[in-house]
Every structure is written in structure tokens, then in C-alpha cells.
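Before relying on records like the one below, remember that each one covers exactly one chain. Contacts with other chains, cofactors or solvent are not represented anywhere in the record.
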Amino acid sequence: AYRPWQADGSPPPSGTRLEEVSLLLYENAYNTEDIVRAMNGYQHPDAWEGGAWITTPSGKQAVLFAGTKSNGDKYWYGYINPNGPQYACVDANVTDFTTCRNADGSACPQEDFSGCCDAEAGTCVSNRGWWTTRFDAEFILFDPNDLAKVANGQMESWEPQPYAAIDIDERLYLNPPEWDLVELGWGDQRRTRIGDVSYDRQSGLLYVLELYADGAMPIIHVWQIK
């Protein structure tokens, strides 16, 4: 958050670097192998794409984020396993970080690190990346009062946690083109489910982009916020 004016209400000179405060900032996974200073339930494949500050005529408020959440029993860096989503398929050539973890952040059993395909030989059924036994399209809600506490120095930027999560999968079409499945995945392992959001405060309408909903084309879902 930042204030675009000076204490007396006048604008700062052109080119001034404004002071800012990070209201919500969890640990960067590139900085540590440990799952620390993270959102509860964090997994590496999580992808939060859009956010909005929600208000209602009754005065209720929430900070909403939307994205594709990994809720798997385990998650890994590698490929989809053709034997089923419950099985990991790590890239066995990558050894400089933990490539498979259980839901609690602990390392997977050693047998999960052997891999299941050879990308150079063309035997992998998906592109390489972070995969999980299950993805879900979700909204998560934060209390704005917690962000105010961060701004006032009463909480650290990694301490606020969502107070609610809403699964919206049953509202989605999830109908990507066949040629994109190698990148997007399929079934429970379909990633990149939803994208950006926008909130029309005057009408109370929340617009949410579903990616690859009509072949390669997105569609927009609309929710009425009350």
C-alpha cells in the first residue's frame, strides 16, 4: 500500500519514489527449502491470478483472491503420471531442490523420486512443471482488519491468513482444446483454471475469468455479492 500525496495533501515532485508497505507478502520459495512464513495449506503449484477488495452496501468488506489451488495429498515438479493422479512423476534429473512433497510439506517417500518417464525420449504425457494429485478453482477471503494491522506494525506481512475458501469448480466449464492438455492437464490435475477478477462496487458484481473454457477461448462468470 502507498499514499500518493504528502502529509499536507500536496502531490510529491515528479519522479519521487513513494514510500510503500507490503500488506501481504509470504516467504519466497526460492529463498528457503522450508515451508515457512507461508499461507496455511500452501503448496508450490498454487497459482493465485486475481484479486479484489469486496465491499457491500451493508458495510461488510473482504479482500478476495482467485486462482487455482493445489489441494493434493502430494505435489511434485515433473510430469503427470499416466497411471493416475495419485502417483507422482518427478523429473529425476532435477536434484537441487525437493521435487516431491506431501500435503504437510514433508518430503515424499524415496520411491516417488525415481521418475516415470523420459522427456528426451518423448515418453512423458505432459509438459514439465509443478503438478499435484488435485487442483481446485478457489476464492479465498482475508479480513481487511488484518491488513490494517500489518500497515500499523501490529502484524508481520506473512501473518494474515484467509478466513474462508470457496471452491467454484462446479460452476466452471473446464473445456480446453485437446492440443493444450499436455500443458494444462486434465481431470483433477487440470491447472490454470481461472484468471483475473474485477469487482463492480456500484452494482455489487464480481467478474471472474475462466481460462480455456470454450476451447482456447476464456469466458467470464459473474457473481452477485450481497
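Residues 144-151 form the longest helix (8 residues).
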